[in-house]
Design a protein that fits this description.
alpha+beta
Length: 597
């Protein structure tokens, strides 16, 4: 049964935390969910039998899936909440009500109160959160209450009313939980210094406060008050694990469009995050095919206009990774740090994952297009005159200076062509000499290809730095192939690429596909060479001992080594043990060889 587009989408989902969205055949959003691992969670819908009838109906109606990648599972929970509140999907029942996650409010008033709330009111107050657990909120407020004496009453503590003696201190003052600002017993400056310290705690900077908790816990433990010490320890653990802020929601970032771009040789991917009152309410990634050599700046400017028109966005400010020109009526910001920077990075991460998913899907449904894209990318990255459809990589192996060998691995259209791999036993070089060995194997390889009329590669990769590259070049010159085949050397330590007659190496992006293919070639050549080297050493070891025994052939040796593993065990074996493996006649020859006396 052929794979459907939905099957391919599920196969290529990332193993990252995020939110998934299911759409029906009319492209209508019908369900939003969160996941610690998107691929595992979404796959489970289609591989399990669901006892719950609503889930079975949901799965039948899914036509496509989209996802938004975030940093943590906590962020996914918050984003799921935002999207469900915004779009009210048909199959999301639990989170459609007006309830929301708790915040901590620092009220905009003369002596600010600090209290939990589920409603964010734009009255100049500060809101910290949202928090995924009310337990965390209560722990934070308990921490604050234990450290600072704040008022809990909702009186209007204006200077005139306090001076007029309108209020009297309450029980909280007598209990030591409040300093009596209502009777003027605490100055506004003193109170606001405490509020400043509380803001730092709520922002996540509560190092000093945690230290005070640790001191308290230690005092309780020394006084044998273990229950009290355990309570403080639990609070410490909650606070240490708690994330104070989320990149997904921040009330200070209101009604903003966020754009980022990721591109390669043929396509650009532009991600759009729409924020409304600090919450992400939409994520969309646009794929643009490059026609000319457009820059990322040009493509981003085109995409911003297109996306804003498509989604009828009227935001007056946009966040982008670099400056763009899209008209004087829109404010363009390039964030450098903080939550604004984080939201741009989140957008870029989603563009990157969208590109990766697309490439995986293309690899499944259109392998030729995938190979063409890789070849075009390698040609540009390595500054080649033609696409490297046929690549050969050489590596030497002479561990401890014995049995020097070399390996040549072949990649065609970016994939290993194992039938074309070749081993070389070094013939003309005495001792461990990597340079001379490389010169020999390159000469032998291409002399034979020329003699047999076989096609030559477009690119040769030498595992080693300038020395090995120079040796390989000598052989190409002898064969009059220099300049006809591109050749580069890759140094192991910093992944530097060396070119003939160029003292300055090329450094590729560590995440580039070109470098990954070169590394795969190098690693495959190393593996293939080591394997051959190991076989030669094993054969040499067999020859030194067991083949000295008259009347014992190679098959007998192999059978004995399979059973006993080492020559020493064979030498110490009893006659009946040897007989059980190779028969009495050959067992007697081996036994008598090691027991001559």
């Amino acid at each position: 049964m052929p794979e459907t587009p939905l099957d391919i989408q599920i196969k290529t989902l990332p193993n990252q935390p995020g939110v998934y969205q299911y759409f029906d055949t009319d492209n209508k959003l019908i369900y939003v969910g969160k996941a610690k691992d998107l691929k595992k969670r979404v796959s489970s819908y289609f591989t399990k039998h669901h006892d719950y009838g609503k889930t079975r109906v949901l799965v039948k109606n899914i036509a496509s899936v989209k996802h938004i990648v975030v940093e943590t599972e906590s962020d996914a929970l918050l984003l799921e909440n935002n999207l469900i509140k915004k779009y009210q999907p048909k199959y999301n029942v639990m989170l459609k009500d007006d309830k929301s996650y708790p915040w901590i409010c620092v009220k905009n008033e003369r002596f600010p109160r600090v209290f939990p709330t589920r409603r964010v009111i734009k009255d100049g107050s500060e809101y910290f959160g949202p928090y995924t657990s009310m337990k965390t909120v209560k722990t934070l407020l308990g921490l604050i209450k234990g450290l600072y004496q704040l008022r809990t009453c909702n009186y209007d503590l204006s200077e005139a009313k306090i001076n007029a003696g309108k209020y009297k201190v309450c029980l909280e003052y007598h209990l030591g939980n409040c300093k009596g600002a209502c009777e003027g017993k605490e100055t506004e400056e003193e109170y606001h210094s405490n509020i400043a310290a509380i803001r730092e705690i709520l922002k996540g900077n509560f190092k000093d406060s945690l230290q005070q908790f640790r001191v308290q816990m230690k005092k309780h433990a020394e006084a044998m008050q273990f229950e009290d010490a355990q309570k403080i320890k639990e609070k410490l653990e909650i606070l240490e694990n708690y994330q104070s802020k989320s990149t997904v929601v921040n009330p200070k970032i209101s009604n903003v469009d966020v754009f980022s771009i990721v591109s390669d040789e043929t396509y650009a991917y532009i991600n759009f995050l729409q924020l409304s009152y600090g919450s992400i309410i939409r994520s969309h990634t646009l794929e643009i095919k490059k026609k000319l050599q457009e820059t990322d700046k040009e493509l981003l400017e085109i995409a911003i206009t297109e996306i804003r028109q498509r989604f009828n966005s009227n935001s007056k400010e946009i966040y982008v990774p670099f400056k763009v020109n899209i008209g004087a009526d829109i404010k363009v910001s390039v964030p450098k740090l903080g939550d604004k920077k984080s939201i741009v990075e989140l957008s870029k991460r989603n563009a990157m994952y969208f590109r990766m998913d697309k490439l995986k899907q293309i690899k499944i449904v259109d392998p030729d297009r995938h190979a063409n894209r890789i070849m075009a990318q390698m040609k540009a990255d390595l500054r080649l005159s033609e696409e490297p459809r046929h690549i050969e990589c050489f590596d030497n192996s002479n561990i401890q200076g014995t049995n020097p060998v070399a390996a040549c691995v072949v990649f065609k259209n970016g994939k290993p062509s194992k039938k074309d791999y070749r081993h070389f036993n070094i013939k003309t070089v005495e001792g461990p000499d990597d340079f001379a060995s490389m010169e020999e194997v390159v000469y032998r390889r291409y002399k034979r290809l020329l003699e047999e009329g076989e096609p030559l590669p477009q690119l040769i990769i030498i595992d080693g730095g300038k020395g090995q590259l120079s040796s390989a070049l000598k052989s190409l010159e002898l064969l009059e192939l220099r300049g006809k085949i591109a050749i580069i050397g890759i140094a192991k330590r910093l992944e530097e690429l060396f070119y003939p007659d160029d003292p300055i190496p090329l450094y590729l992006d560590k995440k580039s596909e070109t470098l990954k293919i070169i590394q795969q070639l190098r690693n495959e050549a190393h593996r293939f060479g080591i394997e051959h080297h190991r076989n030669r050493r094993s054969k040499g070891a067999l020859k030194t001992e067991l083949q000295n025994i008259p009347g014992v052939g190679e098959q007998t040796i192999i059978d004995l080594m399979k059973q006993f593993k080492t020559v020493k065990r064979i030498a110490n074996a009893k006659l009946d043990e040897l007989e059980a493996v190779v028969g009495l006649s050959r067992a007697s020859k081996v036994y008598n060889y090691y027991h001559k006396e």
